[in-house]
Amino acid sequence: DIVNADKMSGRTRKYKIIFSPQKVRQPHCAANVTCDEWSFYLLPLDEDIISMELPEFFRDYFLEGDHRWITSVARALQLLNSLYGPFGRAYGIGRCAKMSHELWRELEEDGENDGQGRKPEISNVFLMDRDTDYVTALCSQVVYEGLVDDTFRIKCGSVDFGPDVTSSDKSIKVLLNAQDKVFNQIRNEHFSSVFGFLSQKSRNLQAQYDRRRGMDIKQMKNFVSQELKGLKQEHRLLSLHIGACESIMKKKTKQDFQEMIKAEHSLLEGFDIRESTSFIEEHIDRQVSPIESLRLMCLLSITENGLVPKDYRSLKTQYLQSYGPEHLLTFHNLKRVGLLTEQSAGETLTAVESRVSKLVTDRAAGKITDAFSSLARKSNFRAISKKLGLIPRVDGEYNLKVPPDMAYVFSGAYIPLSCKIIEQVLERRGWLGLEEVVRLLNGNEFSVSDSTGEETPPGESQRIVLAIFLGGCTFSEIAALRFLGKERGLKFIFLTTAITNSARMLEAMIEAKA
Amino acid sequence: MSRARADEEEYWHSSKFRAFTFDDEDDELSQLKESKRAVNSLRDIVDDDDDDLERVSWSGESVGSISWSIKETASSSTSSLEGRDSSLQKGSSSYAALPKQVSSYSLSNLFKGRNKLPSFQSLSDALSDIGVKNYAPELRRSKAEYKDYSSDWSPKDTVRRMQRGKVCSLERFRSLQDKLVLLDEAVAGHDGNVITAVLIFLKRTLRREILFRELEVRQVALCHLIHFLKETGEQKLLLDLLRFLDRTEEVALSQYREHLNIQDVEKRREFLKSCIGLPFSAEDTSHIQDHYTLLERQIIIEANDRHLETAGQSEIFRKYPRKASILNMPLVTTLFYSCFYHYSEAEGTFSSPTNLKKTFKIPDKQYMLTALAARAKLRAWDDVDALFTTKNWLGYTKKKAPIGFHRVVEILQRNNAPVQVLQEYVRLVEDVETRLNLATKYKCHDVAIETYRDLKDRIQLTAYKCKVERGSAEEEKINSILNNT
């Protein structure tokens, strides 16, 4: 189309069409159009994060069932294997993980093996489908990096901070990675720890600057040439991050954040379901935010193994009324990927329950519904959560400053399922003892050792694990696994099809203009 | 949603509902403010010149967007880049815009492909340097690579070759049998692009009914074809396929989706009308029906109100000129609009809130919430009052709200309701703790005092004295209570 339009307007251009990443067929090209292929696979976002920058992966694979990106994943594995391999063991769970792994193995067999004689650096590889754990992706993030992503949207490792953050009338684009020393120290911290840290740092900075008062010329010269630049840098970074924190706080207090977190935690833990449902209903009625309302509904659905039909109908109607009737299409998409489903008729209220509820007031009926519902249906998340101990039981208050486990990324309420699975499989060197969990996760697990049968050399290489997320990975999961790594003496490298969060996942499901 | 629409939505939702702010974050927030003050005070000392700022310049495009904007993997429409050289420029400059601080490699280095063993410290270096050797745009591939001269590859090998990126001619697979084997091999190979490529070939060379029939038992291939048809916009074929598969609901949805492409409201309205008869589920049918009715209603209201506005006779439109049209807005937004501009109208008119409530069966809770927001924005406190007052059968009035009075207070406060008005409703908050919080926060002294009195909490009551003005009526009230108990 574009070519023709140009032709008509008399513009002569030479066109180069670069298919990224692969060409599927030879299109009908006009004379001045040539075609080529550019396979672009991996973008390092940081010291330990590699992204394939394929946000469309989630929708293409999980909604449309299209396998177009599986080769890309396999090739990425091939590349990493040739650079840092051969890999020791490969573990995985999920249909896509399985297919990617199989395809990769085929590519390895076919291709030249130029990894011979190299010392293997990655001992373990873990592939996981996003739909193995939707819950974690849907939760509000409270580690600093996750919050920044949720609030400002980090793109390709950098973020746009507007005037409200920079305290000037300019916006600024900032790279967020390990090179930013301030960021590097707070990125994985729970938000509550961040203020203390920033305030400490600014006091230090103040002290450093104050030193110049007592200096003589020589010292001052030294100071200016050696230290001033570093201090300036630190000052700039500090003020940016403080500004970001302020902005985040402002937004969160505006949005009833505390109440929402409370509702989320209730859903994760499995009590006060009716209250949470009411909260969601009100959230929709008040037209707070279309994405947030959806997110809460999906969280309710996944933790409860689907919404009770009555709730599904009523919440759907209210959603359409509050945010627009065209979202009928969105609901169908969500149903298809399994994010927002309805319990089937056989699983809902028993005859007794419906009789009883007619006799009591509305308020009490809700609680009875709760009790009966949880008896009548099987809830995979609840069962998995129990089996894996995802909800920490703490005496007293959970220590966020020196956390005992990965649950700190969600304020101590919940250990991310995906991370827990990885932890367990690595510990057990396989799926032994996890059969029940695997069954609840719908199978498709695998555990494969290197075909050369070599004993994986001990020492350094044992410690590096490549965690691969197919369909997206959140900063909270990254923070959690970094934490796990520190605890167990492992180093995690993350390969993901894209960085994701609840908003991106849900936006991918919304039907925009056709 | 388009930009314009988002703006319109914002207009309608602005200051409508805002969350309650409890000052729990005081400690942390003040800590933050401290840090901010500290840092800001240093600004005078530090020369904030721009030279020091290391701004990474991007070519206006994030790297990721290359794959977004250029990719059309399933061979759908192509996107073109201007000129050969500048495309190299654009593509490569975006690619080279890797974090400046991390990799200082120039463009030429990227494509040189030096082979050196990396250590993990420089993972990003490694990726930007070594491996790229194989993955740089090889823009001068020989023509030979495109043609497939030797023609005797088996289906399995053909698929393999396609997976490696070689273009193969599939013409030699003539029989149905051969074609199906080819398809099955493609599916087994897990590469979606190959599967789609084979499907394109089959679509061209097989009779439709046969293709459909064979796909019915091949789920994976079926998904790929459906996705392909969606992306290329081959709506008719897609619908035929879905009908063949008896997926009637999807047929309905697919057709309904088309309405998003129709900009003209009248045409859209007609289109929606035609959607009502489609094979949706019972509930969805009523949603579609509502969608049509809503748009129909909005068209009428819009025409009417525009007329009123330009005529300049109506006070409300003069005082609060409309910032956006009501067309294609959600129902609740429409209700808000109606409660704002047409509140006093009788049920008979199309634009009256009660009419909307009845037509769309809007639940009481939603109605009250919306009406409250609208009237509060107009500072029409009497209307607010009337909303919550009901007469029971004995003729006594009492205030009731299905939404919780704390929400009412919140909305009123956001619209700067005077304390006397706020006080009324704070008084009605059932939960004592919430009531006290709100009373203290919004200085509804009487309510606080009364509540402490009812709780018989002398200590708190005495403590509360410092919150009221010396010699005020409130102080007297506290004193009299303390003295009489």
Automatic annotation (TrEMBL), chain A:
<dbReference type="InterPro" id="IPR036045">
    <property type="entry name" value="Sec1-like_sf"/>
</dbReference>
<dbReference type="InterPro" id="IPR043155">
    <property type="entry name" value="VPS33_dom3b"/>
</dbReference>
<dbReference type="Pfam" id="PF00995">
    <property type="entry name" value="Sec1"/>
</dbReference>
<dbReference type="InterPro" id="IPR043127">
    <property type="entry name" value="Sec-1-like_dom3a"/>
</dbReference>
<dbReference type="GO" id="GO:0031902">
    <property type="term" value="C:late endosome membrane"/>
</dbReference>
<dbReference type="GO" id="GO:0005765">
    <property type="term" value="C:lysosomal membrane"/>
</dbReference>
<dbReference type="InterPro" id="IPR027482">
    <property type="entry name" value="Sec1-like_dom2"/>
</dbReference>
<comment type="similarity">
    <text>Belongs to the STXBP/unc-18/SEC1 family.</text>
</comment>
<protein>
    <submittedName>
        <fullName>Vacuolar protein sorting-associated protein 33B</fullName>
    </submittedName>
</protein>
<keyword id="KW-0813">Transport</keyword>
<dbReference type="GO" id="GO:0016192">
    <property type="term" value="P:vesicle-mediated transport"/>
</dbReference>
<dbReference type="InterPro" id="IPR001619">
    <property type="entry name" value="Sec1-like"/>
</dbReference>
<keyword id="KW-0653">Protein transport</keyword>
<dbReference type="GO" id="GO:0015031">
    <property type="term" value="P:protein transport"/>
</dbReference>
TrEMBL record, chain B:
<dbReference type="GO" id="GO:0006886">
    <property type="term" value="P:intracellular protein transport"/>
</dbReference>
<dbReference type="GO" id="GO:0005769">
    <property type="term" value="C:early endosome"/>
</dbReference>
<dbReference type="InterPro" id="IPR038132">
    <property type="entry name" value="Vps16_C_sf"/>
</dbReference>
<dbReference type="InterPro" id="IPR040057">
    <property type="entry name" value="Spe-39"/>
</dbReference>
<protein>
    <recommendedName>
        <fullName>Spermatogenesis-defective protein 39 homolog</fullName>
    </recommendedName>
</protein>
<keyword id="KW-0968">Cytoplasmic vesicle</keyword>
<dbReference type="GO" id="GO:0007034">
    <property type="term" value="P:vacuolar transport"/>
</dbReference>
<dbReference type="GO" id="GO:0005770">
    <property type="term" value="C:late endosome"/>
</dbReference>
<keyword id="KW-0967">Endosome</keyword>
